[in-house]
Amino acid sequence: VKDSLAARRYAKAMMGAYGTDLTRLEAISDEFGVVARKFIGDRTLRDYMLNPVARQEEKSAILADILKSANASDEVINSVRTVLEGGRFNMLGLIAEEFEAQSFERLGKVKVEVIAATDLDDSQRSALEQKLSAMTGKQAVMTVSTDQSLLGGVIAKVGSKVYDGSVKNQLKALKVRM
Amino acid sequence: MLKRKLAVALGAVVLTPMLAFAKEGGIQMAEEWTMALDGTRIINAIIVLGAFAYLAVRFGAPILKNRADTIATELETLNKAKAEAEKSLKSCEARLHQIELEAAKITAEARAEGEDIKEKIISQAKASAKHIISKAGEQISLESDLARRRLYEETMAAAVTMAEEIIANNIGPDDHKRLIETYIANVENQQ
Q1: Cβ contacts (< 8 Å) between B171 and chain A: which residues?
Q2: Residue B25 or residue A85, greater confidence
Q3: Which of A60, A86, A142, B133 is the most exposed place for a label (fewest CB within 10 A)?
């Protein structure tokens, strides 16, 4: 809870800084998310950044070099540096998630995680996206993955709400009812 | 002590004339009565007899009287003792009778109490047995229900697993397409 609150504070600060330019906000949010996932996934870099013996200036310089060489935007470089200097590097992933959520909120979008038993074709994706957008009153941004254990059907997760139309779930419900 | 003295005196009185007669060669049959000799002898005899009588009266009578008194006293004591003993016997017999009555009463009470306890124990045992049988019945019923439920659940789980396998083996692209389209059409109703 403590980390979550801290991540929310950082995300809110980032929204304060970059949330006015809606044309750039989504791009910054996406970029920040990619960078955060990359850094957290790199164990060597993460261990170094979390090492209390290493000097803060060196850490900042290394981060800036990496991000510049990856053509990261100034907003992202500044944000990552701020997080590092605030001693919250271990929370980078959480901050990125929170920033993404707040950005989506500002942009009138909603993140939807879709899991299907088989791949959805473009028309199915489009139809589902439209339906979910109509349901939520926001533009649905879907991430689609497949899971054959569902046997058939689709699951859509919108925030804390789950719309489970999988065959597996239907069999489970049948078992419970009986 | 007195008896011994009396015996010694009587012995002396009897033996003295006998010794006198023996010294003189025993009583000679008198050929003729002579006053001097025979009269003396008679007087001697009278004196001896008198001494005997005197001694008998002097010592024997008190002894006999004492003896009689003693016997009477002893008899009286014995009678008293006998009376006391009889009284005591009667008292003991009465007491014994009382004790026998009390013992009989106690025995009767104990028997009655024992019967009561026996009845109570039997009654409690019957109630307990009834309760146990009732509980056992309930337990059996509960266990049966549980077993039936478990069997039903296991059967259902097996049926669902089987259904999953059948669906997984038989579901085709058309089925997937239909399921997805149905889902999209009714996504808001999916839970």
Answers
A1: 151-152, 167
A2: A85
A3: B133
- Size of chain A in residues: 178
Judged by CB atoms closer than 8 Å, whether chains meet at B179 and A167 is answered as: yes
Q: Collect all residues with Cβ–Cβ distance below 8 Å to A120 and sequence separation of at least 6.
A: A114, A128, A144, A154, B180
Query: Residue B163 to residues A165, B177, B178, B183: CA-CA distances in angstroms?
Result: 17, 20, 19, 20
A128 touches chain B (CB under 8 A): yes
Tokens coding B76: 């009286």
Q: What angle do CA A98, A138, A119 make, to 5 degrees?
A: 85
Give the C-alpha separation, B99 to B116, whole Å. 25
pLDDT at A143 over 90: yes
d(CA A1, CA A6): 9
Rounded Cα gap, residues B178 and B169, in angstroms:
17
- Say if residues A143 and A112 touch (Cβ distance below 8 Å): yes
Rounded to the nearest integer, the mean pLDDT of chain B is: 86
**HSE toward the beta carbon, residue B150, CA cutoff 13 A:** 6
Please tell me which residue of chain B has the smallest CA distance to A127.
Answer: B184
Provide the CA A173 distance to its chain's centre, in angstroms: 31
Q: Is the minimum CB–CB distance between A120 and chain B shorter than 8 Å?
A: yes
Residue A73 sits at the chain B interface (C-beta within 8 Å)? no
pLDDT at B28 over 60: no
Looking at the DSSP bridge assignments, the partners of residue A163 are A156
**C-alpha distances in Å from residue B147, one per residue of A172, A175, A178, B133, B142:** 22, 18, 16, 20, 8
A128 contacts B168? CB cut-off 8 A: no
**Exposure of B114 in the CB half-sphere (CA atoms within 13 A):** 6
Neighbours of A95 (CB within 10 A): 28
Query: Per residue in B98-146, pLDDT tens?
Result: 999 999 999 999 999 999 999 999 999 999 999 999 999 999 999 999 9
Partners of B181 on chain A (C-beta within 8 Å) are: 124
Query: Taking CB atoms and an 8 Å cutoff, what residues of chain B touch A118?
Result: 173, 176, 180
